[in-house]
Structures are given as C-alpha cells and as structure tokens.
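Morning F.,

Quick status update on the modeling queue. The single chain you submitted on Monday has been processed. Sequence for confirmation:
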Amino acid sequence: MAFWRRHVVGVGTILIIAVFVGMAAGFFFALTRDLPAIRQLQRFKPAAITRIYSADKVLLAQRFYERREPVALTVIPEYLKQAIIATEDAKFYEHPGVDLKGILRAVIRNLSAGQYVEGASTITQQLAKTLFLTPRKSIMRKLKEAFLAFQIERRYTKDEILALYLNQVYFGSGAYGVEAAAQLFFGKSVHDLTLAECALIAGMPKSPSRYSPLVDKNLAVKRRNVVLEQMRRLGIITNAQATAAKNAALATAKQRVRLADKAPYFVSYVTGLLEKQLGEKALYERGLTVYTTLDLTMQQAAERAVHTGLQRLAARMKARGLLKKEPPQAALVGLDVARGAIVAMVGGSNFEQSPFNRAVSAHRQPGSAFKPLVYALAIEKGFAQNDLLLDAPVVFRGMSGRRDWSPQNFSGTYQGEITLRKALALSKNIPAVRLINKLGPSTAAAFAHRMGIESPLEPNLSLALGTSEITLLELTAAYATFANRGVWTRPFAVIEVADKQGRTVWRHRAQKRPVISAQTAAVVTDMLKAVILEGTGRAARDVGRPIAGKTGTTDHYKDALFVGFSPTLAVGVWVGLDHHGTLGNKETGARAALPIWIEFMKNALQSRPYYDFDVPDGVVTISMDPDAGLLADEGSPNATPAVFKSGESGQGGLRR
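Structure tokens below.
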C-alpha cells in the first residue's frame, strides 16, 4: 500500500513538473518565435518618403529618415558618450543588458507615485526596441526587449553596442545618429562639439520633438542643464565646467530649407501637426501622401507682400537709426472663411535665418485689433451701432489695491458723445473701455474664448485695448466668424493623409460651432466696413472689393496689425520685433501692417468671383448720420447705409 502511495505521489510530481516545464516552454516559444535574428542588427532599410502637397497638388516638401551619417566611436567626443550614458543608462558598463536594480527602483517609484514616472530601459534595450520592436507599450514587448538585450550583449561588446546606439538613436527633425544631429543643430561635425552642445544633444532622445532647439530653445536649454547637472553629480565634470556650460549661449546653425520645400513655415507647421497626430516614425518611414489646404498661388502672393512690406519698413527704421542687429519680422495667415482651411501662411521674414513661426507660435498683444470682439459682445447683448458712448477723459478707481487708471486715446483728442460705429472706425480707446466696463471684463473674456481665442485672457478693463497676448491665427479665425454668419470654424492645414497603397489613414473632420447670431455677425461686419470707409483703414479701399477689418497698434509701436476679411477670405497680418522693441514713431497698424494686407488681398482676390457680404433675415439697412447716429435722408452728404437688427434702433431711436 505504501509502495503504491509513493508511486502515485511520484507520478503526480512528475506530471506537475511536466506541466510547469510545458508552460515555461510555451511561454518561451511565444516570447521568441517572432524575434528577429540578432545578426540583422547592423542592417538598415531606407524608409519610404512622405510627400506633402498643396491643395492644388503641387509638391511642397518631402520627409524621410535619410539624415543618417554613421561615425566611428573614436570620432565621438568623450563628453557626448559620457553624457548619453549618464542620462540614459548610468550603469551601462556594469549590467548584462538589463538593469535589474534599475527596474526594481522604477517599479517602487511608479507604485509610490501612483503613475508612470520613471522607466528602466537600458541603452541596449532601447537599441533593441528601436531596431526590432514596435513602440507600443506592453508587458510582452518589454519581455521581448529584455530577451533581445541579453542576446545583443552576448554577441557584441559594450563599445560596439554604444556605437550602434549613437548612430541609430533619433534626435528629431529627421536626424538619426549623433553626426546628423550635430550637423543639423549646430552646423558642425560631432567631433567639434563643445561640452554644452554635447549635453544638449544627449538630452534629446527622451523627447526629440519637445527638446529640439528648433522647436523651443528655452526648453532645450533647460533639458541641457539637467544633463549637465547629472554629469556633475556623477563626477564626470567639475562644478566649474558645469557652471560654464550652463551659462553658454545656445547658438544653433542656420537651417537650410530642403530644395523641394515650398512655403517652409507652413510645411514646418504641418510636419509638427502630423508628428503629433500620427507619430514621428509613421511620418518619416511609411511613405505617406499628405494633402494640405495651402493655395500655392496665394502663398506666393503672401510671401511677396511680406517681403515688400518688410523692405519698406526696414528702410524707414534704418533712416531713423532704429535698425539694429535684429530685423523687423512679419507674419501673415489666410483662412478660407467657410471651411477654416489655411490657404496661406508666412511665419517670418526668412525661414532659413529664423524658423520660429510667428503666425501660430508667437503670443503678442493685438492692440485695437481686439476691440471688434468687445463690440460684437455689445451687439449680441442688444446694443446697436448708433448707440452713444462718451469719449471724454475718465479715471477708473483702483480695485483690490490696484492703482487708478486713466486710459488715453491714441490721437490725444476727445469727441464727446460718439456712436459705437464711429468709435470703432476711429479706434477710440476710451469708448471701448467704457463699453467693456458696462459689459464686464470677465464676460468679455469668456465671450472672446467662445469666439475661438484659446490663449489666456486677463479679465480687466484694459482687455478692450488688446493687452492680453494671443496668436495671429486664433485672432484671424475669430474675425472669420463675422463673415461666416456667426459660425466659428477651427483652422486646419491637412485635408487627408494616405498610405503607400492610397488608403486613407487620416482625414480632417471639421470643427464648427455657432457663437453669435447671423444678425450680430452682419452688424459687426458693417461696423468693420466702416473702419475701411470712414476710419483708420481707409487705405484698404484700394482693394476694390467688399472688405472689412481693423487696425491694431500697441504701446510704443511694438506691434502693428491689420486683420480683415472679404466674404470668402480672412487674413491677419502682424509686424514687430522679436525682442518687443519699437518699430518707430507712427509705425501703426495702418502704416506697417495694412500695406502688406492690401497687396496680398489684391492679388489673392483678383482671380476669385466677386461676392458681397451676406445680409441675413432679421436685419435691415437704414441711412443714418454716422456722427450723430440719427436717421438721414439718402441724399444727405452725411447719409451712410448702416445695418441694424430688425426692430432695433438704438438709444432714443433712429430719429431725425
């Protein structure tokens, strides 16, 4: 009996062991069955080219992963090798491909934080992932990554692995490997890099699109300094070396535009959007076809207009002794009113000298170009354009410990009671501030956000004068709402993306919302037409088409703007200096920005059909005296047709 009991126990034990061995074997097979041969490590297959086209099917640019220049490990500066190791894998020369202590430390930190705050991939694991695996995070992928890392470490020496990594790692903007990165960012070979430059490059693999000095110099410098501090802490460099490198100025190379690139600011903007939407590897490897909204004829007209306008401004500044080392800059963005499609974009005077896109990334004060949003709120709340505001000196008593404030008109003159129409046309400051005081600054800020302004706004009285910084693109999109019957449309630049087989992998979906009534939009458009016919934008009458718009000028002539629209096209123009210096006396929006806008609109509209502004149901056109806001005979020299909501006649009515 005991014999049979022992026999059963023995057989059971063998079966259990067999089950576990089978499970282990099955798991090992599942883990390794689709892993590539390690001998493929040094093979490289060129990725397919992604092509970016304009709306009229003209090739604008190509994007690919060909910027790769392998170099020997002996060519790479010791500081760069040490910076990479210090940043990515401090125990690189000590572990067998996987840092078990590092993994345990990361697990403890992540559990303590309740979220993913620290990874534990070694340089060898990163190399395995880059060459053989997908970026999708999963337990199985991490196990495969670890298994491959062990295999790589068995076949290659540490220096060989490091050399492979340094020649394969991605640094952003299509640059693979340290030599390509050195050439791209600093215009020099990798062996000529300084300590500070080595640290900057070493900090980029963590997030190439975020830490690139071509994207955000300030963030790149912060990341560089983190790397330098890590090197100092590990004893790789001295305190003095770390301090000197942290204080070193960041001098990036002038970016050469690829030969195929047209509309470089727009292409750069589209590239950034696609990297976020599809991922960098997909954009540079999968051979996509990208169809954009850009109208190349309009784009070329925009580039000519900006170039001419800046040449004239620079000549005036030079004559006044104001043209220092930094040249004036300009930005222009054109939107299809109905669709929100970006048809033209210029982000600066010269992409090669400065790739910073001022049309979408620069936050600047819009000055009086913000006023139409305040007036639109008033019209939406029941004001009429013949209502009267007092244009006279005023002091707003300080609240919450703030100083008293006495706004001033740009002209320095006052006209007493003045209609909303005339106050906007002449860009009077005091009536605008009185108006926002009636409406409430917080209400005005919330309304501006509803109109598509996404930048933060300070809800104070000076908001009416455009003191909160916003981007040109969001302001232009807000103006397009007036021409689009009160419907705001989010601007977009990419229509569709197709793969190598022509299958759609991404398509734009319109984002629209009604934000004001069609009647309010019609009234505000009529008031902005008055800016052209009777006010600060008179020069724009030369366009010869129905247009509306508003000038903007900030204190000390630091910013000059004109934002306006035809029934089909909304265009914003900004002019200024990057360091917020003055453009010079009298360089207002009407003088510095409006000529660029006029030249562009004349060329952009000449081949388009003639359209007039929409007159929706619920509005009437009445002859009025724009000064007094009273009804006027059509034959009167002061008679002006003005749009009102049906049944509204303003304070006191449209009486004679």
